Amino acid sequence: MTTAQAFGQTYTVQSGDTLFLIAQKVYGDGNRWREIYEANRNVIGGNPEQIQVGMVLVIPGQGQPGNGGGGAGKGNFQKMLEALGAFESGFPSGDPRQYTSENTLGFMGKYQFGEPLLIDLGYYKADVYYGNGADKNYWRGTWTAKRGINSKEQFKNSREVQEAAIREAFNLNLQRVNGALGAQGQSINNYLGQQKTFNDRGASKTITISLSGILAGAHLRGPYGVADLLLKNQPSHDEYGTSILKYMEEYGGYNVQAADFS
């Protein structure tokens, strides 16, 4: 429970709480958990995950967002999209070539959409496609006319549709990650804000789990790749050798909530 709804309020830790979830409750932004930790390090100790039920924590600057209103993270949802789109497409933020980009495996657009994803999102239909009888995205299927898109070229030349599609993809992936975790009695909330260490091809890698990182990781390796990482500590890599951990670290820590894309 919280007391004193003003600067310097306190919060009494409840069962199931993490610092991320507490920051989500009091700031509306779980990525500000470090502010709470730093203000209460003498109470919590050296490990931010070791909070105990009944601890009374000081909540500094409640209602005083940092980073231009986006909290203490890397930025807001749009900032995350711009960073992800620049890496995926190979062109800097604002460059119109992002949307028409296509790589050697036929992934295309600002966010490098492939056939399986656009099938799942209802834009495209095919019996043979990448990962199901095809060794790349040949785009030999048919388009459904969703959002008025009837061809690959139309999709590549529609900024608005690509921006809508990535939001649809995040929403679908989040549902699927939660479904896979739920089948094992877990949820995303069990992991948000946690620091986890993984063995990635012989190298030890520690990352902090965040919603933006989960979304990015699922975009790279699919929702079940994220679920396997969280449940089984199994990192995976894409066709070019990019690790899911790179995406979850590099695009983690943005101030993202489900309402941004649902």
Written overview of the protein:
InterPro entries: Bact_Kbp, LysM, LysM_dom_sf. This is LysM peptidoglycan-binding domain-containing protein. It comes from Hassallia byssoidea VB512170. Residues 9-59 form the LysM domain. There is one protein chain. The protein has 262 residues and is α+β, with helices and mostly antiparallel strands. The chain has ten helices and nine strands. The protein has a three-stranded antiparallel β-sheet. Strands 4-7 form a two-stranded antiparallel sheet. The chain has a two-stranded parallel sheet with strand order 5-6. β8 and β9 (203-208) form a beta hairpin. It is elongated, with a radius of gyration of 20 Å. The model is unreliable at 1-8 and 62-72 (pLDDT under 50).
Q: Main sheet?
A: 3 strands, antiparallel
As a percent range, the share of strand residues is: 5-15%
Number of domains: 2
Unreliable spans: 1-8, 62-72
How many E-type strands?
A: 9
Total helical segments = 10
State Rg. 20 Å
String of helices and strands: EEHHHEHHEEEEHHEEHHH
